[in-house]
UniProtKB/TrEMBL annotation:
Keyword annotations: Antibiotic resistance, Cell membrane, Membrane, Transmembrane, Transmembrane helix, Transport
Transmembrane regions: 20-37, 49-75, 96-119, 139-159, 171-191, 197-218, 238-262, 274-296, 317-336, 365-382, 394-414, 420-439
Species for this entry: Clostridium hominis
The organism's taxonomic lineage, starting at the top: Bacteria, Bacillati, Bacillota, Clostridia, Eubacteriales
Name of the protein: Multidrug export protein MepA
Membrane topology of this protein: Multi-pass membrane protein
Subcellular localization(s) per the UniProt record: Cell membrane
Amino acid sequence: MSKEKDILGTESIGKLLIKYSIPAIIGMMVNALYNVVDRMFIGNIPGVGPMAITGLGVTLPIMTILVAFGTLIGVGATTKVSIKLGEGKRDDAEKIIGNSFTLTIILSIVITVFGLLFLNNILTMFGASENTIVYAKDYMIVILAGTIFNMFSSIFGNIVRGDGNPKLSAVIMSVGCITNIILDAVFIFVFNMGIQGAAIATVIAQAISTILGLMYYLRGKSNVKFKKENLKLYKSSVTGILIIGVSPFAMQLATSIVQLIYNFSLKTYGGDLAIGAMATVNSISMMFVMPAFGFVQAMQPIVGYNYGAKRYDRAKKTLKISLIAATIVFIAGYLLTQFTPEMLVGVFNKDPELMGLTINGLRKYTLAMPVIGISIVGTYYIQSTGKAKMSMLLSLLRQVIILIPLIAILPRFFGVNGAWFAQPIADVIASVVTGVVLFNEVRRYSKIEEDELIEEVKVA
């Protein structure tokens, strides 16, 4: 067993979370900035900013689908590798790494071909109008062509961190983000390439992150080694990745479905600009949600390893600290969105009509932000213990089972405000249910430990 992995079972939980969470948070914030920075620059393109950012808003469900597939493989592989190492099965862990590369290549090719062939139909289905489809299409042609870099950059962010090198994971993503910011400014404002320039900048940045991640494994610097023979797909490895990864995949896919339904609801009750408002609201919310995902990604290898090793006290302590940290971030986000929305929204666009729509939506959309840490951290904790079905149910609860009916019903009575209120109501209900599931899960550990102690006494 490597020294790094053994530390997961022995070092102070607080120190481990600091060590893993800071790079993970940086990584998640950097990942979010890819899209957020694009929206900032695009929203400020002279003369076309409001319509351009609305066109970008139409693409949000598609971008989320790409993230979903990256999450499916990245989180699935990372969690499964941690569990296998905790069980002392290094060969199985190495097979999972190799198989994750092969799955990424296959999925990327399928997504690129399908997306480019049916792009017009997809954009129309996702809410593009005659005024916005030109911007959405210009952006997505480039993004879809670079799908393989999108997915690999996302996956390396997960597996390099799970390999025991969270600092390198953050560096890889930070280099990509900085590149994206610089190229955005150059392509949009120097070369006047508009929204297509933003997409090209994003793909180049993701390609650089992909190259850095590949170098880490191909040069043999990783703790869990990459071996060519493990590129061959093994049923057990593929199944393990997909079973664990399906929960966060479902959560991201559900987010895409919700974004699609939101687009139609907002367009119906608020017009094209309401979709642009949601693009900004989504960006601002993401800047507070991403740190929470950084906490849970740091939590996952620690929980996975200690749960696999039956060190339940360490798993519980990791959960507690992660919940507290995420809640603090969300309370800060709530205060900023409620009391300084003009400052946050003004970064994306200065158009008076669009700003008014966005500020109104932001305040309502984030009303339940202080409690959603329970839902997010709890769902990923359950996933980290290998309970894929329950984790997926909790994921879908917040994003589909409760939210979609609310989006469909509330606007009929409250207009566009009903769409904004749907999210906080769903957040509160989902957090209560997740809290109950977490309580029962943690309480179960005491019974397991008692039973094991009885068995030891009988054997003695």
